[in-house]
Inverse folding.
């Protein structure tokens, strides 16, 4: 039966792939001359040797250069050779060997005679008991990654377990790899670590990869070590070194594999340092720079990086998996564990694809959500799925899991300096942070609202480029929310190529799409217009710079001015201040949450205080800061990573564009928390971004620097009162989770009073609607 399948499928493949074979032969001849085929002596069934056909992928004098591990960067391989190896076109002539009876479609790959010494007599006899194959278990699971020991073990495993069904599975896995739907051709990352060395099925890894395709539509790659129970994978959005940036990057000995989601903005300077030290770099990719730094410095390499990143490193030398996240959590990274299997990914949906059992909803996370309007890290909506925290690392070994913090903003100390010195340093840092974030091999632009943050970034961008900066804005028919006139004014001032569109009157139909990309409830309505402006930008560019982070660093939100205008804001003790500030920014008070819950839910959550659990630990770290900086530090740790950085990342990645945030350069963050609170919030008049606005006025003009701040949002509350009230009721009533968690009478009270106008429950109803819409998708 197997032989009949070999003959039929090989003949059909030769017939169908005839044009591909001819084109490949021509490409090899043009690239490196004749001959286009070569025959290599290999060992076949019963130990008999035969000549195995291949398209030539190496230079003609390859033997003189010497042997290389197939996982390494082999200098003998030609330009066309790299392509036909990556796509496995070099193996197609072996269909002739199959028809001649020397090989099978599936089997252990044929060894050269010299490899006989690597086997025991029994293992060699077992291996030679079947015909060798064009593809096999090792090729389906490993491709060019892995050690020779891994390959031999998988070849022997195939012989022991061979069946027609296994052959069909191996052919399907191999086809998946070749078409980009399988495991080795993948700016999201994913993978796993199993302490007991159990292999995750290739189809599970392929499913994880497919769930992240929106983050990286350009390329895919997986390094899988099934015998060690570890894999690291990447879906890539090509920004830097489009041709040479394929991930994973492998060390020369094939023992280290690295993938990353994000960008290292100082990679040019780091690459120059490495070359000066004699390190060979084969590409212009920032990921290769990470690999070479890790080889030389170990985990300490991360302190050298200026960027936004989530990194995974499989280090077979230590038999360990290392995960590292950037300083403030610009790029996401989640982990989950079940039964000794650890999964990691850039988005929760990828983890859910591969978990052995569906996790339970985390009621404590929902409890915190009702305080913050988002779920604060490290919690997620699912039990057992957690964030790798910003500025932290996790290391998985056979002994267990280690974790630590590699960057800590709270170590800064406030220092008084004259305004002139402050302004000079502020502008120098922000200018350089903007300059290095313009490094890309694809079109880039900026979001421009005409506010002080985005206007400052665009003004600095214009300093460093010859062509007009591409800027993007969406406007609204409602003048209370429309900033398009200010954006046009700023664009004209800085000579931008500006694109603006008026958004639809009601954006609620976009909410389910938003929540699909968020993977958990978020009550913030500004995700919807952020997705809209991201869609606009994605028609023209792949990278945008944004002004995110300026409000949290320099007290730009109205809530700061409102709270610190209170008579007791600076007179109460630290504990009183911290509790009262938390209460002031909370969505639902503890009492309101208890009233909202059904009695059985209220009883389960009564003893969980969101302040004690989620906020107090952060306040404890920054008690040496003044009151303003304590409030800002809390938002840096919770609001940014939990909501405000999720917004540009997920909404940008939803349409495959990358958002970069110059304000969140580590130098600017440390500078901001060396700046006393009075430089940010004026004690005299409550002026927000006090010294910041003074510093940028010569750059952007007084009208843009001091114009009244508008929130980038949409009038959801009015939609809930009028045309969308029925829709809201239907959404809430149709959610099983909402019905299970929340008291119907309390929800009804809020709906009625909001519609009548006797109370404004916009934010609270938004939060409940987000739970319901998310629930409908899970």
């Amino acid at each position: 039966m197997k032989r009949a399948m070999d003959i039929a499928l090989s003949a059909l493949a030769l017939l169908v792939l005839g044009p591909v074979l001819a084109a490949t032969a021509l490409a090899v001849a043009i690239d490196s001359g004749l001959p286009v085929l070569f025959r290599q002596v290999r060992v076949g069934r019963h130990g008999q040797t035969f000549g195995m056909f291949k398209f030539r992928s190496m230079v003609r004098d390859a033997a003189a250069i010497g042997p290389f591990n197939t996982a390494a960067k082999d200098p003998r391989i030609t330009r066309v050779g790299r392509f036909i190896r990556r796509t496995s076109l070099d193996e197609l002539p072996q269909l002739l060997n199959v028809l001649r009876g020397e090989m099978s479609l599936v089997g252990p790959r044929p060894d050269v005679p010299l490899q006989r010494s690597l086997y025991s007599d029994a293992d060699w006899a077992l291996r030679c008991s079947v015909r060798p194959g064009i593809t096999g278990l090792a090729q389906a699971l490993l491709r060019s990654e892995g050690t020779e020991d891994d390959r031999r073990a998988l070849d022997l495993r195939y012989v022991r377990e061979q069946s027609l069904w296994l052959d069909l599975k191996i052919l399907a896995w191999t086809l998946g790899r070749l078409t980009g739907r399988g495991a080795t051709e993948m700016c999201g990352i994913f993978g796993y670590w199993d302490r007991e060395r159990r292999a995750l099925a290739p189809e599970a890894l392929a499913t994880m990869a497919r769930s992240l395709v929106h983050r990286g539509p350009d390329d895919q790659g997986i390094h899988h070590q099934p015998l060690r129970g570890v894999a690291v994978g990447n879906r890539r959005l090509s920004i830097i070194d489009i041709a040479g940036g394929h991930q994973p990057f492998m060390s020369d000995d094939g023992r280290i594999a690295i993938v990353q989601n994000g960008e290292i903005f100082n990679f040019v300077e780091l690459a120059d340092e490495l070359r000066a030290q004699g390190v060979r770099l084969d590409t212009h990719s920032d990921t290769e720079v990470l690999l070479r730094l890790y080889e030389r410095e170990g985990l300490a390499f991360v302190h050298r990086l200026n960027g936004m990143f989530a990194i995974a490193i499989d280090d077979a030398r230590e038999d360990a998996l290392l995960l590292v996240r950037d300083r403030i959590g610009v790029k996401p990274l989640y982990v989950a564990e079940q039964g000794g299997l650890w999964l990691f990914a850039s988005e929760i949906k990828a983890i859910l694809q591969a978990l052995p059992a569906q996790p339970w909803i985390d009621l404590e996370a929902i409890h915190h959500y009702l305080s913050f309007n988002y779920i604060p890290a490290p919690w997620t909506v699912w039990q057992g799925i957690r964030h790798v925290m910003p500025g932290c690392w996790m290391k998985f070994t056979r002994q267990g899991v280690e974790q630590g913090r590699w960057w800590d903003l709270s170590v800064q100390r406030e220092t008084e300096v004259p305004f002139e010195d402050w302004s000079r340093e502020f502008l120098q840092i922000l200018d350089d942070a903007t300059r290095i974030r313009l490094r890309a091999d694809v079109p880039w632009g900026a979001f421009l609202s005409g506010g002080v943050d985005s206007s400052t970034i665009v003004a600095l961008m214009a300093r460093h480029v010859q062509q007009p900066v591409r800027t993007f804005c969406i406007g609204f028919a409602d003048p209370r929310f429309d900033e398009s006139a200010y954006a046009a004014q700023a664009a004209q001032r800085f000579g931008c190529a500006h694109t603006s569109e008026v958004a639809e009157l009601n954006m609620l139909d976009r909410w389910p799409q938003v929540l699909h990309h968020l993977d958990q409830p978020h009550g913030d309505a500004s995700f919807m217009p952020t997705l809209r402006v991201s869609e606009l930008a994605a028609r023209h560019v792949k990278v945008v710079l944004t002004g995110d982070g300026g409000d949290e660093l320099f007290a730009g939100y109205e809530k700061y001015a409102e709270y610190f205008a209170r008579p007791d804001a600076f007179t109460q003790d630290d504990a009183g201040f911290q509790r009262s500030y938390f209460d002031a920014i909370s969505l639902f008070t503890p009492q309101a949450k208890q009233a909202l819950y059904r009695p059985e839910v209220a009883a389960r959550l009564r003893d969980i205080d969101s302040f004690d659990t989620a906020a107090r630990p952060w306040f404890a770290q920054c008690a040496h800061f003044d009151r303003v900086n304590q409030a800002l530090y809390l938002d840096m740790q919770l609001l940014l990573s939990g909501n405000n950085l999720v917004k540009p990342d997920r909404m940008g990645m939803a349409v495959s564009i990358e958002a970069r945030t110059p304000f969140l350069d580590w130098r600017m963050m440390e500078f901001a928390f060396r700046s006393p609170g009075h430089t940010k919030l004026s004690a005299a008049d409550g002026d927000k971004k006090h010294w910041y606005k003074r510093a940028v006025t010569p750059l952007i003009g007084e009208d843009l620097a001091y114009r009244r701040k508008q929130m980038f949002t949409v009038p959801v509350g009015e939609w809930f009162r009028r045309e969308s009230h029925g829709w809201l009721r239907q959404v809430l009533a149709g959610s099983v989770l909402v019905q299970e968690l929340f008291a119907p009478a309390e929800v009804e009270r809020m709906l009625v009073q909001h519609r009548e106008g006797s109370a404004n429950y916009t934010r609270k109803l938004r939060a409940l609607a987000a739970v319901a819409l998310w629930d409908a998708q899970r």
